[in-house]
Amino acid sequence: PPLQDFYEWRDRRVLDEIHWYGWFIDWWMEGGLLRDIFTHKITTVEHYDMLMQPYNYSLDELDYNNAVGPDT
């Protein structure tokens, strides 16, 4: 891919990626507790599986309230 594609991806996702690495450290230290990356709320297996494939879903699809529901 062209270098410009990387720059566009970086500018869109860099803060999310940094947040993801912090979440991964928390996940590891909590013994694999399933939490939403962005809200840190405990989540479902289905939502967690979506979070593990972030390039296959939009940020709206990965949003906790859309995937799990605000009342969960």
For the structure shown, list the relevant keywords.
mainly alpha; globular; 58% helix
Structural features, described:
The chain is mainly alpha-helical. 58% of the residues lie in helices and 0% in strands. The protein has four helices and no strands. The protein has helices at 3-29, 45-51, 59-62, 64-67. The protein is globular and about 40 Å long.
Short overview:
This protein is 58% helix and 0% strand. The protein has helices spanning 3-29, 45-51, 59-62, 64-67.
Helix content: 55-70%
Residue stretches low in confidence (pLDDT < 50, at least 5 long) are none
Q: Bin the strand percentage.
A: under 5%
Instruction: Tell me the total number of β-strands.
Output: 0
Question: What order do the helices and strands follow?
Answer: HHHH
Summed over residues and divided by their number, the pLDDT gives a mean of 90
> What's the multimeric state?
single chain
Radius of gyration: 13 Å
Q: What spatial form do the alpha-carbon principal axes imply?
A: globular
Number of alpha- plus pi-helical segments = 4
Class based on secondary structure composition and strand pairing:
mainly alpha
Largest β sheet strand count, sense and barrel closure: none
How far apart the termini lie comes to 40 Å
